[in-house]
Design a protein that fits this description.
There is one protein chain. This protein is α+β, with helices and mostly antiparallel strands. It folds into two domains: about 50-140, Sandwich (Jelly Rolls); about 145-245, Jelly Rolls (Sandwich). The chain contains one helix and 19 strands. Mean pLDDT is about 85; it is low at about 1-10 and about 25-40.
Length: about 250
């Protein structure tokens, strides 16, 4: 009598792979359906209106473009509204004012836009200018280095993630920061009323006189900030971390 041995392992392995592929296919289909449903809902919400990318929205004016950084000065007057616009990149916000009044440069961040497109429009139904200085990052979310902290800061960041690092510095009248050097591009924004100087290593000084004034410093450039006014002032330092391209 001849005994025939049957090895079922390969067969079971094939069944396992087939099941895995079926599950992955189902998840992919669910994701496509979700995206389609979201797009359909947004299309219905803004039916008849032109939808543009945030970088093409007229009230979101690009004031600086440097590598992966797009800096936007969003200004919306009372009674005005933006076009419907979509976000698909991480964004850091310095909130200068809203329809109710000053916001003292509150820092906020949304990184989920980099993985999930979001479309909306905004309307100013208040009595004050709505202004936000925003920093859009067009990188892939993978920082070039985990060891790219600046020198001379002397305080912890308010926000830190793979795209951005942001600080809020309060200076008394006459007070200066240490000389600081950033390995990433940085934008210094005046958040409150006051008068401040951003002094570069080459001797050139940029004067900030009101909330929303700003100065750009490239990666590797050192500077210090001095409050030359008579009252305390808050300054935001926004760092755009260098990343791999998408």
């Amino acid at each position: 009598m001849k005994i025939i041995k049957t090895n079922n392992v390969p067969f079971q392995h094939d069944k396992g792979l087939k099941l895995l592929f079926n599950i992955l296919g189902l998840l992919l289909l669910m994701g496509v359906l979700t995206d389609w449903q979201t797009a359909l809902a947004q299309g219905e919400e803004f039916a008849g209106e032109k939808i543009v990318h945030v970088l093409d929205e007229p009230r979101h004016r690009t004031v600086l473009q440097k590598g992966q950084l797009y800096m936007i000065d969003m200004q919306l007057n009372p009674g005005d509204a933006s076009l419907p616009h979509r976000h698909d990149q991480a964004i850091l916000l310095n909130r200068i004012s809203n329809p109710d009044g000053p916001q003292l440069g509150i820092i906020d961040v949304v990184t989920s836009y980099a993985s999930e497109t979001y479309t909306h429009k905004i309307e100013n139904n208040g009595d004050n200018l709505w202004r936000i200085l925003a920093f859009i990052h067009d990188g892939n979310g993978e920082a070039l280095s985990d060891n790219d902290q600046p020198t001379g800061m002397g305080l912890e960041p308010e926000i830190e993630n793979n795209w951005f690092r942001a600080y809020r510095i309060e200076l008394a009248a006459g007070e200066s920061t240490f000389t600081q050097l950033h390995q990433n591009p940085s934008v210094i924004v005046q958040a409150t009323e006051g008068l401040a100087h951003v002094s570069r290593e080459d001797g050139i000084t940029r004067e900030l006189t009101k909330p929303g004034d700003w100065a750009f410093r490239d990666a590797g450039a050192s500077y210090r900030i001095t409050n030359i006014g008579n009252n305390p002032v808050i300054i935001n330092v926004n760092e755009i971390r260098l990343q791999h391209s998408k």
